C-alpha cells in the first residue's frame, strides 16, 4: 500500500507524485560538501538541466522491501513523517534512486557484486530482485529525515517530496549514470550558490543549500535534522511581477496573500506592492499602496477601500500629503469605480497615514473618522475628526460589511485598529507591521500600553491581519504571540544589562541591549529602549538617580 497522508482529502496534494531525495554529504577542507547532479536536458521539463540531489518518484515495489530495512519500522517512520502509514517507502525510494543515479548504495551485504549490476537495472522490480539475490539489507538508518517540499499548484508536474540527509557511505564513490544524471560534483553550499557558477537551481534546492550552509560539519547537519520535531511542509506558490511568474517561498511576505487569492496556482497575484496598483483582496476590500516606500514605511503605506459589494465605500488611511498624493488619490478614486466614498477613516495620525485625508475630504465630502493626535511630535496635528469612535463601536458600511473600532494605544496614543467582522480581518495600521517590529517612541508611544493592546487582540477571533505596510498576514494570533515574546525578551535584556553594567545612562545600555541591531540604527533603538525603561520604571523594577539607571 502506498504512503497514506493523515488527511487524504488535502487539496494541496491533488495530482502530486510521491518522491524522495537524499542529500549525500561529506566533510571537506572548507566544510561540508554536498553531492550535486545535473539532470538530463528535456524539452518542456522545468527540471531540465537543473542541479539537484539524487532522488525520484516512488515505485509500487518500494513497499516490498520494508523487511530488508535496518532502521525504524514503518509505523515509527510514518509518525516521524506525519503519515498514517507507508512512510518507509520514501526511505526505500531514496536508497533506490541514489543507487540508480549515482551508484551509491546505502546497504549491507555483498555490495561490490550488487554495484556491478547497477546498469542492468531497469525498474523497481529489478532492484527488489537485486536485494534478494545479494541478500542486501538497506541501511535506511543512515538516512535522517530533513524536510518536506511540495511543488506549487499550477505547475503541470507536481511532486510531494521527502528529503533526507546522509553521510557518504564508507568506501564508495559516486558515478553519474549518464541518463538521469549527466554529471556530478561535490560542492560546498556556498560554492553551489555562488552566482559566478551559474548553476540552474530549483527553489527547493537553493533553500536547502542555504539551510545546510549554516553548519561546519556533516555530523552537525545530521544531529540537527534528527532533532527536528514534525518538520513543516513547504509548498511554494506561483506569484508574479512585471518580469513574469516565479515560485514564492513560504517565508516571503506575499506568500499568505497569494494563497488566499490564488489557491489554484494561476500565477497572476503579485509578490510586490508597486504604488498605485489596485488589488482586490476580497469582495469587500481593495488595497492601493502609496508611493512613499522607505526604510521606515517598507513598500509604502497601504490605503484600503472597504464596503459591501456594489455599495458605498470607506477609505482607510489615505496616506501622506506629498508630491505623489494627487496620483495616489486618483488611483483610489479609480479603484472605487464610481462608487461613493462616504467615510474617510484613519488608524492614527502619523504623517504617513492620515494627512491625505484632508485632500480626499475635499474631493468627496466624506466625513473624517478617527482620533486626534495626543502629542504633537511627528503627528498630523491638522487632522480634526468629524467623528471620534469609541472602543468597540461598530460602523455599518452596508449589508454584511461591518467595521468595529478596537482601541490599540502603544505605537501611538490615538491608535485604532479596525475589525472587518464578516471576514475576521483586522486592519492593524502600525500596531502590527509585516517584517519589522514597531517603533515605540515616548511620550506618545507607551510600551506598557502596547503590550496590553497586543494581549487585547489575542482575545478577538481573527483570521487575517491587513497591515498598514505589507501584504495580508495569516495566523494573526501566532504573530501576536511572537511580538509579545520579542518585546519581553528585549525587556529581559534590559534588566540583564543593568545587572551586568550597574548604574549607567540609557545611551550606555544600547550597544548591549541592541547588539543584534546595526549600529547605524542605534539612535532609533534608543527610542524603543526608553519605552522599555518607562515601563520598568513605572513598575518599580528599575529606578533612576541623577540620570543613572539601576535595578529597582
TrEMBL record:
GO molecular-function term, one example from the UniProt record: catalytic activity
All residue ranges annotated as the Nudix hydrolase domain in the record: 15-215
Gene3D superfamilies in UniProt: Nucleoside Triphosphate Pyrophosphohydrolase, Ribonuclease Z/Hydroxyacylglutathione hydrolase-like, Winged helix-like DNA-binding domain superfamily/Winged helix DNA-binding domain
SMART domains membership: Lactamase_B
Domain of life of the native organism: Bacteria
Pfam family, one: NUDIX
Matches recorded under PROSITE patterns: NUDIX
PANTHER family xrefs: ENDORIBONUCLEASE LACTB2
Entry protein name: MBL fold metallo-hydrolase
Organism whose genome encodes this protein: Ideonella alba
The organism's taxonomic lineage, starting at the top: Bacteria, Pseudomonadati, Pseudomonadota, Betaproteobacteria, Burkholderiales
Amino acid at each position: 500500500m502506498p504512503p497514506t497522508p493523515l488527511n487524504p482529502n488535502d487539496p494541496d496534494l491533488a495530482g502530486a507524485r510521491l518522491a524522495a531525495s537524499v542529500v549525500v554529504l561529506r566533510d571537506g577542507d572548507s566544510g561540508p560538501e554536498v553531492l550535486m547532479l545535473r539532470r538530463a536536458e528535456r524539452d518542456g521539463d522545468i527540471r531540465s538541466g537543473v542541479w539537484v540531489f539524487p532522488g525520484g518518484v516512488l515505485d509500487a515495489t518500494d513497499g516490498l522491501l520494508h523487511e530488508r530495512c535496518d532502521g525504524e519500522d514503518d509505523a515509527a517512520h510514518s509518525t516521524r513523517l506525519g503519515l498514517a502509514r507507508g512512510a518507509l517507502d520514501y526511505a526505500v525510494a531514496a536508497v533506490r534512486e541514489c543507487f540508480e543515479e549515482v551508484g551509491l548504495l546505502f546497504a549491507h551485504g555483498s555490495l561490490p557484486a550488487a554495484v556491478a549490476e547497477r546498469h542492468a537495472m531497469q525498474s523497481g522490480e529489478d532492484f527488489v530482485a537485486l536485494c534478494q539475490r545479494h541478500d542486501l539489507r538497506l541501511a535506511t538508518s543512515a538516512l535522517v529525515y530533513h524536510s518536506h517540499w511540495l511543488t506549487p499548484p499550477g505547475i503541470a508536474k507536481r511532486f510531494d517530496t521527502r528529503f533526507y540527509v546522509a553521510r557518504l557511505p564508507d568506501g564508495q564513490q559516486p558515478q553519474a549514470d549518464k541518463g538521469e544524471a549527466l554529471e556530478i560534483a561535490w560542492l560546498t553550499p556556498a560554492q553551489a550558490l555562488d552566482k559566478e557558477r551559474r548553476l540552474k537551481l530549483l527553489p527547493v534546492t537553493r533553500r536547502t543549500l542555504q539551510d545546510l550552509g549554516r553548519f561546519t560539519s556533516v555530523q552537525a547537519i545530521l544531529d540537527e535534522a534528527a532533532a527536528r520535531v514534525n518538520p513543516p511542509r513547504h509548498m511554494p506558490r506561483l506569484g508574479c511581477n512585471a518580469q513574469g511568474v516565479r515560485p514564492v517561498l513560504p517565508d516571503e511576505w506575499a506568500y499568505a496573500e497569494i494563497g488566499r487569492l490564488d489557491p489554484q496556482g494561476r500565477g497572476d497575484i503579485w509578490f510586490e506592492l508597486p504604488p498605485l496598483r489596485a488589488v482586490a483582496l476580497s469582495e469587500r476590500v481593495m488595497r492601493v499602496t502609496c508611493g512613499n516606500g522607505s526604510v521606515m514605511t517598507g513598500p509604502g503605506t497601504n490605503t484600503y477601500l472597504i464596503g459591501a459589494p456594489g455599495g458605498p465605500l470607506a477609505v482607510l488611511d489615505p496616506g501622506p500629503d506629498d508630491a505623489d498624493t494627487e496620483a495616489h488619490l486618483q488611483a483610489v478614486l479609480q479603484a472605487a469605480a464610481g462608487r461613493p466614498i462616504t467615510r474617510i477613516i484613519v488608524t492614527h495620525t502619523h504623517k504617513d497615514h492620515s494627512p491625505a485625508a484632508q485632500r480626499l475630504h475635499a474631493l468627496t465630502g466624506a466625513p473624517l473618522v478617527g482620533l486626534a493626535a495626543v502629542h504633537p511630535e511627528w503627528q498630523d496635528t491638522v487632522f480634526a475628526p468629524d467623528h471620534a469612535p469609541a472602543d468597540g463601536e461598530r460602523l455599518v458600511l452596508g449589508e454584511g460589511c461591518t467595521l468595529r473600532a478596537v482601541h490599540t494605544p502603544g505605537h501611538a496614543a490615538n491608535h485604532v485598529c479596525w475589525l472587518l467582522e464578516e471576514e475576521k480581518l483586522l486592519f492593524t495600521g502600525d500596531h502590527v507591521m509585516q517584517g519589522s517590529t514597531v517603533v515605540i517612541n515616548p511620550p506618545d508611544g507607551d510600551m506598557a500600553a502596547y503590550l496590553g493592546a497586543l494581549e487585547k487582540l489575542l482575545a478577538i477571533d481573527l483570521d487575517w491581519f491587513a497591515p498598514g505596510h505589507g501584504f495580508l498576514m495569516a495566523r494573526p494570533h501566532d504573530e501576536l504571540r511572537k511580538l509579545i515574546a520579542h518585546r519581553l525578551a528585549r525587556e529581559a535584556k534590559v534588566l540583564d544589562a543593568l545587572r551586568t553594567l550597574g548604574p549607567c545612562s540609557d545611551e550606555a545600555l544600547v550597544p548591549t541591549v541592541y547588539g543584534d541591531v546595526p549600529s547605524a540604527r542605534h539612535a532609533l533603538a534608543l527610542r524603543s529602549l526608553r519605552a522599555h525603561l518607562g515601563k520598568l520604571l513605572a513598575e518599580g523594577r528599575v529606578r533612576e538617580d541623577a540620570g543613572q539607571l539601576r535595578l529597582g
